[in-house]
Amino acid sequence: MKIAMIGTGYVGLVTGTCFAEFGHHVTCVDNVEEKITTLQKGDIPIYEPGLDALVAKNAAEGRLQFTTDLAEAVPDAEAVFIAVGTPTSRRGDGYADLTYIYAAAKELAEHLHGYTVIVDKSTVPVGTARQVARIIKETNSAADFDVASNPEFLREGAALADFMRPDRVVIGVESERSEQVLREIYQPLYLRDTPIVSTSIETAELTKYAANAFLAVKISFINEIASVCEAVGADVTDLAKGIGMDGRIGSKFLHPGPGYGGSCFPKDTLALMRLVQEYGENLRIVEAAVEVNAAQKARMVKKIRDALNGSETGKTIAVLGLTFKPETDDMRDAPALTILPALLEKGAKLRVHDPKGMEEAKKYLPEGIEYVDDAYAACQRADAVVLMTEWNQYRALDLERLKTDMKELTFIDLRNVYEPTSLTSLGFNYVGVGRK
Predict the structure, then answer these.
(1) Is the CB of residue 117 less than 8 Å from the CB of residue 146?
(2) Domain ranges within the chain, ordered by starting residue
């Protein structure tokens, strides 16, 4: 099947490449010429484990190509996926900015030829598909098309596995023709007995927001419980195991830390809150989760300050990890973007390391931070180490070496990677989240 993918960001590039791996012929379109030129050279503008090799393989085998020209990709496509960005509106009101969605709809409409299914792959509020259909019809009244919704459920750092072995595929459709096209696209997953949930368009659009909101609530819940554990002398790690083994709760997303970040949870929770308010409804639980997440980042600043005897002024702090999670270079809404400026403002000297995110971090973080290429170099003569992101290479640090290299032995583990006794037995002052 011939597919056009509009947008070569995280979702578009991963989805288009995986569809090509399924055996479809995919043309990825982007209006940023520099990005397309980079992809045509075989370079990947984002970091996602395994994606570079999969792009190279399918491009070499002729199933994946890149262009800036919609006229080259859309007319022969049986399905056109819209996978452009839907950031939070610049107005600062929490609404999703649908400018790129609507612009893509208008531009592709002019090139439709024969029956085509237009698929919203981007995360969008309920009602967006209806607007896309209206724009296409107004632009090209003769177009023969259906609009569908096919939300993505990809985790950065594990996107290829999530796409190839998903828990489910959700498709929102209104006609048998459009449903048949989407089922044919996902036919390779039938062999793995992947459930395909076919719903109305509105249900599919809301499903993505509801899933992300639920996970955000779960993270904020365990972070609040971690604070309770600190107050009463309990251990949140053991507590999370105790409740996570309950099949009704599950163990995933019960890991306390400095708060959630990334490209999805922060913007999607806000967009969902604004959406339901338009309908005169409220999501009190989601509102509370957003508030808790903001407070958690501030709480981490206090935790670091307290570990430094009440003041970070003049102290050298080594920060290990900057991205919002490991195995990505994504800095969007990363906790580090809130925590590090607060420390810097109070006079801390910050020396930081991240395996993949330092170039991106420089775009967001203020000047005055020292970036180093080695984790141990960051810790040289440091008064404290803050483990911000749980990259694998930080999970087995040479603690004896740290003991020798550091000026003061304070280890602040914001991801609870280490057992406290492994550090306290060496003389470190260990500070975790939700632990004694």
Answers:
(1) yes
(2) 2-199, 291-431
Q: Which residues of the chain have pLDDT under 50?
A: none
397: helix, coil or strand?
A: coil
Nearest CA to 155 out of 359, 327, 401 is that of 327
Q: Which residue among 18, 28, 229, 264 is the active-site one?
A: 264
In CATH terms, the superfamily for domain 2-199 is: NAD(P)-binding Rossmann-like Domain (3.40.50.720)
What was the pLDDT predicted at 90? 75
- pTM: predicted TM-score of the whole model, two decimal places: 0.92
Cα Rg of the chain, angstroms: 23
- Which DSSP string do the residues of 46-78 spell out, in sequence order? S--TTHHHHHHHHHHTTSEEEES-HHHHSTT-S
Q: Contact at 8 Å (CB) between 290 and 268?
A: no
Q: In whole angstroms, what is the distance from residue 222 CA to residue 284 CA?
A: 17
Q: Is 231 left (phi over 0), alpha (psi -120 to 50) or beta?
A: alpha
CATH number 3.40.50.720 given to 291-431: yes
28 catalytically annotated: no
The two domains 2-199 and 291-431 share their CATH topology (first three levels equal): yes
User: How does DSSP assign 213-275, residue by residue?
Assistant: HHHHHHHHHHHHHHHHHHHHT--HHHHHHHHHTSTTT-STT----S---SSSHHHHHHHHHHH
Q: Is 234 exposed, middle or buried (0-12, 13-18, 19+ CB in 10 A)?
A: middle
**301 Cβ contact list (under 8 Å, min separation 6):** 338, 339, 342, 343
Burial 352-380 (b: 16+ CB within 10 A, else e): bbbbbbbebbeebbeeebebeeebeebbe
The predicted-structure confidence for 69-109, as pLDDT tens digits, reads as follows 999 999 999 999 999 999 888 777 788 899 999 999 999 99
Residue 87 confidence (pLDDT)? 87
pLDDT at 321: 98
Alpha helices, H only, 122-244: 128-139, 159-164, 176-185, 187-190, 201-232, 236-244
